Recover the amino acids of this structure.
């Protein structure tokens, strides 16, 4: 896991918060909107560049398995990056 | 419900609604496209819901969001295409207001894309959009009618989304009285998906929300009245400029009615605000109020079109307008599924129904 990597949401992305979910659309020829359940807080934090560690600290309180939480978050961020919703920035 | 977040708005129910009332509320919320507003109210604890109702709210808010985002994507494509072709346009209504005067764009849904273009560019803009794959739903009433007298034309773009291309803000006499220089002067803008798109200036926006609330639907849509409140409370419109613009547009009666609706439907006494204060005593002329009445009733579309005669300048133009109303071109009638006779019969019946 690259802890020096920082993440930020893409400026081109269209989005709406729907209660504690966020619905995202990455503009493109065949783009369809998708919902990130419980993702509204994460999405708000991604308005600024954040490391995975910073995101974890902001989003979680006590967790039984911090390493697993970090891995899951990193996996989600990578998927969002693959979809074009977020991009990696230099540390 | 439409008043959530406004000071002194009508209070919500004390308990979650029963099944029938909940179903009725969901239908009404869907019609007004305010699923996001209900979601915000429920999440804030300002609208009591059961656990099952909260899931209904979540599902509806997500669905609304998906529609709104898809429309925004189409808006950006269309605005880009028109910009690349050298045309000036303004984003109107929901997509402009959601991103400018609402605390959260999710609170203000929309059902189509509304774009204003200059009258001189009208037919070339339609050509550009059609060349990009858009399909106009209805031909104009007669050749040249749109550019001289028309309000808008609806085009269907990809995935079935609709672009409502505007030449002015409303049908009827109040649409013809709009000063088009005011619509394109001193544009504001909003950022959507990192792209800045031009909107009306804040004073024209205030008049537009009033027109939309007072003239577009009968009965008025609650969200349209909410728009009036949001713009009036934004402190952006300059009161003196609004007064002068309303004078040019002959809009005093329309503004007064919109402010009255804000009081009656949402409990908002907007007259206390600087932008609205002068309209507390200026209600327009009796003639203007009479013309406003043609925008109400089941035949409002027809009666206001007929009332447009009051705003068409000159005998020759009035004759041309009447001729177009009385004898639409064949392609228009075919698209509506009418014969010349059934068209006139329907129009006469609807207008007669309005005057009963």
């Amino acid at each position: 896991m690259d802890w020096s990597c920082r993440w930020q949401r893409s400026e081109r992305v269209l989005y709406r918060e729907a209660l504690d979910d966020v619905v995202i659309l990455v503009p493109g020829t065949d783009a369809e909107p998708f919902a990130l359940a419980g993702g509204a807080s994460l999405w708000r934090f991604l308005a600024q560049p954040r490391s995975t560690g910073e995101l974890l600290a902001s989003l979680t309180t006590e967790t039984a398995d911090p390493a697993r939480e970090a891995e899951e978050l990193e996996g989600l961020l990578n998927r969002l990056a693959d979809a074009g919703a977020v991009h990696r920035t230099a540390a | 419900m439409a008043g959530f977040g406004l000071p002194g708005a009508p209070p919500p129910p004390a308990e979650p609604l029963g099944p029938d009332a909940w179903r009725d509320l969901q239908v009404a919320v869907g019609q007004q496209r305010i699923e996001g507003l209900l979601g915000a109210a429920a999440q804030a604890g300002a609208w009591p819901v059961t656990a099952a109702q909260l899931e209904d709210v979540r599902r509806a808010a997500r669905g609304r969001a998906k529609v709104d985002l898809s429309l925004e994507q189409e808006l950006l494509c269309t605005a880009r295409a028109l910009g690349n072709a050298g045309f000036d346009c303004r984003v109107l209504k929901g997509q402009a207001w959601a991103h400018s005067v609402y605390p959260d764009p999710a609170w203000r849904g929309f059902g189509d894309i509304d774009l204003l273009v200059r009258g001189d560019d009208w037919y070339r803009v339609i050509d550009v959009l059609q060349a990009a794959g858009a399909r106009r739903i209805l031909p104009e009433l007669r050749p040249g009618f749109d550019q001289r007298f028309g309000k808008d034309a609806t085009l269907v773009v990809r995935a079935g989304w609709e672009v409502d291309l505007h030449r002015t803000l409303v049908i009827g006499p109040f649409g013809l009285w709009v000063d088009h220089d005011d619509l394109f002067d001193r544009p504001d803008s909003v950022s959507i998906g990192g792209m800045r798109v031009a909107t009306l200036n804040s004073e024209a926006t205030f008049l537009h929300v009033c027109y939309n609330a007072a003239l577009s639907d009968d009965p008025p849509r609650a969200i349209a009245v909410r728009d009036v409140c949001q713009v009036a409370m934004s402190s952006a419109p300059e009161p003196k400029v609004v007064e002068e613009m309303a004078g040019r547009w002959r809009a005093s009666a329309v503004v007064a009615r919109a402010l009255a609706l804000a009081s009656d439907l949402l409990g908002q006494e907007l007259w206390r605000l600087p932008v609205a204060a002068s309209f507390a005593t200026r209600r327009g002329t009796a003639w203007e109020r009479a013309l406003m009445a043609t925008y109400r009733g089941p035949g409002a579309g027809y009666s206001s079109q007929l009332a447009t005669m009051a705003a068409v300048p000159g005998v020759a133009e009035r004759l041309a307008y009447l001729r177009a109303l009385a004898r639409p071109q064949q392609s228009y009638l075919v698209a509506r599924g009418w014969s010349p006779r059934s068209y006139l019969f329907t129009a006469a019946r609807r207008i007669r129904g309005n005057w009963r």
In short: The helical segments of chain A are 40-45, 52-59, 66-82. Chain A is about 35% helix and 25% strand.
